[in-house]
Amino acid sequence: MGVPSGGPAVEPDTATQSVTHRDIRGASAGDTELRDYRAAFAAARVPMALVDLDGRVLAANRALGVLLGVSPERMAGAGGAAALLGLDGDTHAHAAFQEVAGGRRARLRCTRRLARADGGGIRAEITLARTGPGPLLLTVEDVGERDALREQLRHLRMHDPVTRLPNRALFLERLAEAVEQAGVRGTGRIGLCHLDLDGFKAVNDTLGHRVGDELLAAVAHRLKDCAAAGGHLAARLGGDEFALLLRNSTGTGQATGLAESVLAALHAPFDVGGHRLAVSASIGVVEREAAGSTATQLMQAADTTLYWAKADGKARWTLFDPERNEHRMTRQALARTLRQAVDRGEFVLDYQPLVALDTGRLRGVEALVRWEHPHFGRLAPNRFIGLAEEDGSIVPLGRWVLAESCRQARTWQQAHPDRSLVVSVNVAVRQVWDSDLVADVAAILRETGLPPRLLQLELTESAVMGSAGRPLQALHALDEMGVRIAIDDFGTGYSNLAYMSRLPVSALKLDGSFVQGFRSAEHPNPADETIVEALVELAHRLGLTVTAECVESAEQAERLRRIGCDTGQGWHWSRPVAAAAISDLLSA
């Protein structure tokens, strides 16, 4: 397919004007313009040839002869253009040549490897074009050096200068290729280890970036050894983040085994910059069927799993867990829409009875918020209250719960004026700090007409212990207003009754864990009963009432009554129910 070779190589001094004039006799010998054209053609540094409409080389200039190592005269004749353009056996190229020759196409361009007379070869870009009614002009450009330079620049662009490993761009490219090819051949599976160094920032901050770079290079060397053993790809994604790609993974065991080998390889100290440094890594491992996955999805899963490895204690690997990831995705989705959900009115309240243990009569209710999510359905408070406290939406949500609870309590009071039903509402500590809780409570009581004595605010023990400044002032202001203050989940935090005596608290709600020991009548735990009895006695001496939470049986209720608890709350009497069900209880 190359240009015919043979004959002496072109000598620079003898080939300066080597042009074949055969078949150009139609031009006048005295035509100055044609002589100029011939001179320019012969002296041009661009390798060129004139080709007739039948594919014969009419003339070749010196530059083309030098490029191919063949005398220009020897290139003239039948078949020359076919050899240069690779027309033989290529029907598509031959048809394209005929279109150019017939004037139906302006040019033909192709890239081929051409043979030289000395046995070597070059990669060339060949262009055939019409320049007028006469012969066709063929030009040849050696693109080998250009391609080599381009490849060199690509290598520099796609590799990390510090570690010499592939960088993020090249890794993502290889990952995408592996995903695409996994379904064509091999196991059809793919594995990914995403890791970063624990505490690397401290090295940079204390010893400087030079030592930090030396450490990264040393880590990269060990990672490359780990990857090479299984034919895997190691890359530096940036900073102290690295990744290893397992093409055609044989299963989860191979991916986790590679993670184990990395942890073992990094266990030995590094001697860099005159310092002996110990580093560890956290690794997120993803291994799955490649079908249905994309490079982006795999990287997101690996990044998430790396975060889990950090959260689980560092210096370890963690395997991607779809269920755990679903929980995380759900949490993120809830966090994005939580604040808007308050404005859209997606929250509702259920109420759980507080029952007097001595008489069995309904003393009050605890308001419990639920989220009627348009996609996830009804959500309990443990699914979103923590999120609300994190992003501050607990303030508008808490204000709505308080207002709706007081409105409903006022409705019950008006319908049953002989019953003093207390509504108990949970208050997050952030509501005390980030809003004017006292002003909000006063305004809501005023708007609803609910007497302050029928409102009880529940705060957790850890939230009120050590209260000072604004929280303590708020508690005293609410107490002076006539609102009851209760400590929720008592016994799980400080349990400092001496300090409690200095707070304006009127009630304690014992955490349900104390009641759990009362479940078995056959095997009671006397220590549980002794602790609860002591707490109740101390609380009563301080003038506080006591409510036991999570009461599930009549036996538990009876034992708590004997101990002296004032009220109980739990499934033994009722699960949280809608306001209408409480109305029915009041009417019974």
From TrEMBL:
- The record places domain PAS at 33-77
Q: Which Pfam families match?
A: EAL, GGDEF
Ranges where the EAL domain occurs: 331-588
Q: Could you tell me which PROSITE patterns the record lists for this protein? A: EAL, GGDEF, PAS
Q: What is this protein called?
A: PAS domain S-box-containing protein/diguanylate cyclase (GGDEF) domain-containing protein
Region of interest (Disordered), residue spans: 1-27
- Which InterPro entries would you find in this protein's record? Biofilm_reg_signaling, EAL_dom, EAL_sf, GGDEF_dom, Nucleotide_cyclase, PAS, PAS-like_dom_sf, Rev_trsase/Diguanyl_cyclase
Query: Could you tell me which residue ranges the GGDEF domain spans?
Result: 188-322
Which NCBIfam families does this chain map to?
A: GGDEF, sensory_box
